[in-house]
Specification:
Number of domains: 2
Strand content: under 5%
Order of helices and strands: HHHHHH
Oligomer: single chain
Mean pLDDT: 77
Number of strands: 0
């Protein structure tokens, strides 16, 4: 189990770019010092795990889950900036003389 955890830790930084090569070969090439007996650990479940963990949507969800207050701060800041801009535009158009 320690070897599996080691490979999972190494695999978190892997980005899989789909090309003509097989995904399994790319993963095995990226992970160094893998023995023939350990190649059997890289089964279909492990590949699905890697594909899920490398998707953009999953990575964004993980960042939000790990930093919820930062995400809330960014959302509130965005809405404050938008409301400020809408307020300034409204004041500009209401104060300008009509022709």
């Amino acid at each position: 189990m320690g070897r599996v955890n080691k490979y999972i830790k190494l695999a978190k930084d892997i980005v899989i770019k789909p090309v003509d090569e097989e995904v399994e070969d790319k993963i095995i090439d990226r992970i160094s010092n893998i023995s023939e007996s350990d190649k059997n650990l890289l089964d279909e479940q492990f590949l699905k795990y890697l594909e899920k963990n490398n998707s953009r949507l999953y990575l964004i969800a993980e960042k939000i889950r790990n930093n919820p207050f930062k995400f809330i701060f960014i959302i509130i800041s965005f809405f404050l900036i938008v409301s400020f801009l809408v307020n300034r535009i409204r004041k500009y158009y209401l104060s300008s003389p009509e022709k």
